[in-house]
UniProtKB/TrEMBL annotation:
Organism encoding this protein: Anaerotignum propionicum DSM 1682
InterPro entries linked: DNA_bind_recomb_sf (IPR038109), DNA_bind_recombinase_dom (IPR011109), Resolvase-like_N_sf (IPR036162), SSR_resolvase (IPR050639), Zn_ribbon_recom_dom (IPR025827)
The protein, known as: Recombinase
Lineage summary: Bacteria, Bacillati, Bacillota, Clostridia, Lachnospirales
PROSITE patterns noted in UniProt: RECOMBINASE_DNA_BIND
All copies of domain Recombinase, residue ranges: 87-231
Amino acid sequence: MKDLSRFGRNYIEAGKYIEQIFPFLGVRFISINDNIDTAKENGYTNSMIVPFKNLLNDAYSRDISIKVRSQLEMRQKRGDFVGAFPVYGYIRDEENKHKLKIDETAAEIVRNIFAMRMDGYNNLYIADYLNRLGVPSPMEYKTLKEEGFFTSFKLNPKAKWSPMAVDRILKNELYTGNMIQGKETTLNYKTKKRMGKSKKDWIRVENTHDAIIPKEDFAIAQQMMLNDTRTSPQRDSLYLLSGMLRCGGCGSGMVRKIVKARGTTYTYYICAKNKEDKKECSSHRIREDAVLEAVSVLLQKHKAIFNQLNGESIAWKYASNELEIQKISEQISCKKEELQKYQALKNYIYEDYKDGTLTKTEYQNMKAYYEKICTETEQCMHCLKLEKENLENENFKKKSYRIEAQARDFSVELRRSALVLMIEKIIVLDGKKIKMVLRYQDEFFINSEG
């Protein structure tokens, strides 16, 4: 070795190797700058100088670790991004590598994920939907964007969207423009095992970069995930009122029940505690259609008051039909280029096989791999073309996740995203009355009939 510090900075382990393991194995150890050679009698291996130097090297390593930790913490508190790779939806700013800016391609996917979650779709459905359209997962997208990216966690040749990946995006506050860092740490400089830190110890700096999701909408999404009940096995999305109804007597959630009588199906909600034990609370039973009718009336009045106060209509934002078609057309073009690339690679490996560069087994394995990717890409193109046809032929308009309100007739159609963005909770009182608490306005009392 050049010197003892190059061999190791843990004085216990270094001393153990030099004084015990190497002599036992018959290994000769030489440190040039320290003038140590275990083959010579005056090699200083038995003197105090070796453990003393190892101890100094260990202390130097600890000092460097403290300085590095302190510098990183200072940058984090300043709002600088110190991670290895930006989170999905952002890229590094070319002018300042410690600042983030929006990657519009990935950011649009993030917005769609929040939009679908606010519409009541569960994480599994969202992940399957993105996989059907061939949208690259965060890991796959990072591989495409960052040539130096490598991870040992990738189990399949092509990473897919998973419910956990969707959940991580929905819970990441960084999309609101706040920098959240310092979630993990190591016990000390001698171990690389990472351990999570308490949430109160995270380093949080607000408004350090442009937001993809408004803070208000992010907060609503978090509340939705806490309140939402499980999705019915027969449905991909939640019911309109799932997680929104609260018992006015005990504050518990309301349970959805379906009853069939004389060929007619009735849907109603009942207090969860009353369902378990009728002595704890009264039923507070109320029909679903009565609540939805009251909600429609309330939202119509709410819109009218807004229009009267502001003197103008507050618009509901709809994603343009043409814009959606254009985006899907761009995705189809990208998939077409991807298909051509893998088809060309399949031809190249055949030429390598003919030249003898690849063995028959290697050629067959690589051919099967590229054929599988080509098949998946063609399936994605097919799904994208169907999506495009639906937009063109049925004049389908996909509503964006942000609701700012214009002339939507709530009495005709109710969307879950409209409910959760405008109504905080619905309290079911005795006498078939409900009390609706709006997020940004005074409370309204509406009596429901039936």
